[in-house]
Amino acid sequence: MARGFSLVEMLVVVAIVGLLIGLVGPAAMRQLQSSRSTTAAAQIHQIRAAIDIYTLDVGRYPNQTEGLNALVANPGGVRGWNGPYLRDGRLPEDPWGTPFAYSVQNGKIVIKSFGADGAPGGEGQDADITG
């Protein structure tokens, strides 16, 4: 004769699974957010390397107007441009699906991801990642 599970046995299993999800879920989410920040930093490093090659070819950094697009398409009239300088000939987006910000401040380039919220500033997963 086949015997099934009792309601009490099923409730115990559901409670154990619920506890496991409650304990493991937050740790998994923290790890996911940390990996996104690490990925954004790696992408910024890759873009910086492409800018260095662009600078060797052209003799200067892309200006504010040209922006990061100068790495994938000749901005026009730029002598020595030998791109595209990024794989697949397209600009990557940050792990949250937002384009990287590019600016030139006091002669130095700044490449930035604004984090999960896509806005300047923030803490935790919303913090800016700058390179």
Give a concise summary.
The protein is 40% helix and 10% strand. The protein is an alpha+beta fold. It has a 3-stranded antiparallel β-sheet, covered by helices on one side.
Description:
With 131 residues, the chain is of the alpha+beta class. 40% of the residues lie in helices and 10% in strands. The chain has one helix at 7-58; strands at residues 101-105, 108-113, 129-130. Strands 1-2-3 form a 3-stranded antiparallel beta sheet, with helices on one face. β1 (101-105) and β2 form a beta hairpin.
List the helices and strands and how they pair.
Layout: H1 7-58, E1 101-105, E2 108-113, E3 129-130
Antiparallel strand pairs: 1-2, 2-3
Name some characteristics of this structure.
alpha+beta; 1 helix; 131 residues
- Strand order within the widest sheet? 1-2-3
- Following the backbone from N to C, one meets helices and strands in this order, namely HEEE
Q: What proportion of the residues form beta strands (DSSP E)?
A: 5-15%
Q: Please identify the structural class as seen in this structure.
A: alpha+beta
Distance between the termini: 69 Å
Q: Helix content range of the residues, please?
A: 25-40%
Mean pLDDT: 86
Q: What does the radius of gyration come to?
A: 24 Å
Contiguous helical run count: 1
Strand tally: 3
Weakly predicted, low-confidence segments = none
Biggest sheet features: 3 strands, antiparallel
Shape: elongated
